Queue: 3 jobs
Job 1
Amino acid sequence: MGPTSPPGPQTGNILIVEDDPSVLRLVSYILEKEGYEVDSAPNGLIGWEMVCRKSYDLVLTDIRMPVMDGLDLLKRIKLELPDTVVVVLSAFGNKDIAIK
């Protein structure tokens, strides 16, 4: 087998739902550098409104946020848009939340 070329830039639409501006900037920067189109929302309610207006390949959401938390956002997305991939992130280790 001959050498393979390194993978090219990625494409796709990603929504990051995160209330911490520094985390949001860092994750957005990394994903945009890899070639993804990144949108952001500061809480679950705004994230939900954005998901209703635009199709995303992936939604990355924090758990603990004001207005609507990430678990409520996950429930809404899976109920209304079940094919949307959602990854829930948290800086807080909690087995009960992970099981939910």
Note: The CA atoms of residues 7 and 34 lie 10 Å apart.
Job 2
Amino acid sequence: MPEIDAKRAEAAVRELLIAVGEDPDREGLLDTPSRVTRMWSELLSGMSDDPSRHLERTFEIDHDEMVMVRDIEFTSMCEHHMLPFIGKAHVAYISSGKVIGLSKLNRLVEYFSKRPQVQERLTMQIGKALQTVLQTQDVAVFMDAKHLCVASRGVKDDSSNTITGFYGGKFQEENTKAEFLKYLDINA
């Protein structure tokens, strides 16, 4: 995808300010269109990124136990209201002879979260991408996020979080899923 069209985005923000009754030429708002454009460029940077570049290097290793990276912080943009949702992802897999650098799991979460999203799709995209690169169905992803569209508008519920999960292969079995979920309770 192409980079953000900054000139067009700034003009749109300016028009939005006018549409809501603001004066985009007043002192406090003069630089707002460019600030908002830079923010959106950062929040939506995954649209111009290719996840495969983060997952190219795998290692052959004789390891058949769970590998987990927990508490991966992320921020994504709700595609319905264009407000952020912020949370933590927990990603695990059981190797079928291939492992990936641990930081690559963080990068995978980052890549898919930096685009207009719904949490359900985000969770599945991370799980399926990991299944593909590691050539295993044995992948689990658990995401817990606060949605600002729920907290700041409509129902205005600031106390609720949204939980989504993806459980493939052995993680669909009761014992493996329970072990994965138990690891999430550590230091809770």
Note: The first helix runs from residue 6 to 19.
Job 3
Amino acid sequence: MEDILLRAERIYHLPTELDLLIEFAQQEDFLFLQRLKQDFQTGRNRFDQVGEALFAVYVKNHLIAIGGLNQDPFDYANKVGRLRRFYIHPDYRRKRIGTYLLMHIERYAQAYFERLHLFTDTEEAAFFYQSMGYERINWAHTNFRKVFE
């Protein structure tokens, strides 16, 4: 793979290019990016509570990945973050973009949370999270976690 210049940043507004990622996600039968847009626009989830953030990855100023961090609604002690709406443009998968984004999110999360939880229903994503040190668990609403040391 040729070297590509990546830029990850915390975002406070949805990028206009999100619609392109939504189209790709829908072609894969993933609806969570459309929910991200709806929830953000309605104010239901703007990733703006304590410890929360939304991150985007750009290459040459083009949005290629997005992922967010929320307070886990199933943890009442506010010690658990929840990885949400994590998506990489199909043309950029298997090029360490997901690793790059996840590492950014984890670095941010460690200042606020003791561990991260997530739910995925694809084997490809499950393999990715396991390769990143996440442990498979079988809890309601959560099937992977990572405890920060």
Note: The mean pLDDT is 93.
